[in-house]
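Folding follows sequence. Below is one example:
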Amino acid sequence: MRRIGLLASLVALAACTSSPAPVIHEYLVRREPGPVKAAAKEAPLLHLRALRVASHVKGITVVRPDGEIDTLVYHRWAAPVADMVRDWLIADLEATGRFHGVLGPTWSGHRATRDRTTLEITVRRFELEEAANGSTQARVEIGGLLSHGGRVLPLAWVSGRAPVESAAGPAYASAMSAALGEAAATLVDGILAGADPAR
């Protein structure tokens, strides 16, 4: 009798392990390409030397009304948050035509020291925020330090937000793109002002 019960348990376990794994949906937050202004030959290089992301941001992060932080299980970003923010900022900065080039954090060549314009970025928020009334919005907060001409200029924290239209992965990505675009545009304005030699 015990043997039959054990056999039944093994069959049930095998049935459980043979069920199909849940589908994981992946999404990207990325900037659509736009017009790029040609930079003057004497325009400086900008080195985005470091980009840090708050430790609580893991995958698609959701902040509940009571402050609890969750990470979605079956939906996730297809690339690290740092990479998506870096690519967006570099594209926005290159599009201004104010820099001869924008070097990423992995650059270690001598060109990075040709001028003294470097940038360090911190992503403080990159999350979905639920309100008590059931609505959800994407929230992004970015700040940083700009080193130019021998001085270090703290960049003000900037934020972007956008409503999430539905509880689905594509809506999360669309809202986060809008929020990041708003924050990045404001941050780029601060970077350009800080790198202006006349200031």
User: Anything to note?
Assistant: Confidence is low (pLDDT under 50) at residues 1-15. The chain is about 30% helix and 30% strand.
